[in-house]
Design goal:
There is one protein chain. The protein has nine helices and 14 strands. By secondary structure, the protein is α/β, with parallel strands linked by helices. It has two domains: 197 residues, Vaccinia Virus protein VP39 (Rossmann fold, 3-Layer(aba) Sandwich), CATH 3.40.50.150; 135 residues, no CATH class. An eight-stranded mixed sheet has the order 1-7-8-6-5-2-3-4, with helices on both faces. It has a six-stranded antiparallel sheet with strand order 11-10-9-12-14-13, with helices on one face. Strand 13 and strand 14 form a beta hairpin. The relative contact order is 0.09.
Length: 348
């Protein structure tokens, strides 16, 4: 991954936001200035390196563009960009809560996630998408489904103030980080610009998961637990862990094809074996896209000694989130004694 350093205040493109950001303020005055400037310009502060990056990657389609400040500077620098927002400031379509002023820096058109499908040949630009809202994930899914290949994201990392878990799951599973560009930050903020490219596709849909750092930690945990007797060493293999990743990818693909939330996907892989005393022994791994959980279960019943493993990837939806039409069309089954429906994607 390449990293670009922050540019100085004097840039090639006239940037009043950057000048006002660098005006000397302290304490409460600085926090008050942030609120005013965010409303006037944008949540993130562009610098020359960030603008150059966008210009190089144009044509651009910006979704959730707000006032259009970033788009206006890209245009000044010779880039090509179209900008959309569900509630463009100053329009008659409804009040923009974050930018109540009746003006724009650029011609921001009204448009939600669906419009991005018309611009799959453009680089997608998302700048500070709403926190804990599905907007960024919805846009990115539609862009991917339309064949989009390049993304520029300005915001914080997961568990920060931008996007939701589903958005970051999509980034982690389907996109490679190409470049990171530092931008000026308001006090307490940790945002930056990241350029992504879509991972190589597998078949006609989406790629399987790539290697994750957590896998090594997970494998060590399983091995440490097995200990003695040696016969237990075959309870779970590295191949089982890899298969769990593949199963999760299948669940995510199913969710994306059917416009279901990625956060509803989970995978479970496990195995049972105890040839010495024929008592049930299990290692169970659960993965929800952001973290692994490992549990161990014993039960007193006897079973036939058998090395092996099982795995399943599932879509689980709360009853309040699924319609009768979806239940029938997707083959979802009611989970006994629980308020949710499930579709098992694969069993092995």
């Amino acid at each position: 991954m390449k990293v670009k350093k922050t540019h100085t205040v004097s840039g090639r493109i006239d940037n009043p936001y950057l000048r006002e950001f660098h005006e000397p303020r302290h304490g409460i005055a600085r926090y008050a200035a942030r609120d005013a400037l965010v409303s006037k310009y944008s949540w993130a502060i562009p610098n020359q390196d960030a603008l150059d990056t966008l210009i190089e990657l144009s044509p651009i389609v910006e979704m959730g563009a707000g006032t259009g400040y970033w788009a206006s500077l890209v245009t000044k620098g010779g880039g090509e960009i179209v900008a959309f927002d569900e509630y463009p400031p100053g329009s008659s379509e409804g009040k923009n809560h974050w930018h109540p002023q009746p003006y724009q820096w650029f011609d921001v058109q009204k448009g939600g996630p669906d419009v991005v499908a018309q611009y799959a040949d453009h680089t997608l630009f998302l700048c500070w998408p709403p926190y804990a809202k599905s907007f960024a994930a919805d846009v990115l899914k539609r862009y991917m489904q339309a064949g989009g290949q390049r993304l520029v994201y300005v915001g914080e990392s997961q568990y920060g103030c931008t996007g939701d878990d589903e958005f970051f799951i999509l980034l982690d599973q389907f996109w490679n980080v190409d470049t990171f560009v530092h931008i000026p930050e308001w006090d307490g903020m940790h945002d930056g610009m990241t350029v992504y490219s879509l991972k190589e596709k597998i078949g006609s849909i989406y790629p399987l998961l790539g290697p994750r750092k957590a896998d090594a930690d997970l494998w060590d945990m399983v091995v440490d637990f097995q200990g003695e007797p040696p016969a237990w060493k075959y309870v779970l293999t590295k191949q089982d862990v890899k298969r769990a990743q593949e199963l999760y990818a299948e669940a995510v693909n199913f969710a994306m094809q059917n416009d279901l939330p990625i956060s509803s996907c989970r995978v479970e892989v496990g195995a049972c074996l105890s040839p010495e005393n024929q008592r049930r022994f299990g290692v169970f791994l659960n993965f929800n896209g952001t973290a692994w959980q490992c549990s161990y279960k014993r039960a007193p019943q006897l079973l036939t000694p058998r090395p092996g493993s099982f795995g399943r990837a599932a879509i689980e939806l709360a009853t309040d989130d699924v319609s009768k039409e979806q239940i029938k069309a997707l083959g979802l089954k009611k989970v006994r004694n629980e308020d949710k429906y499930r579709r098992v994607v694969t069993i092995f």
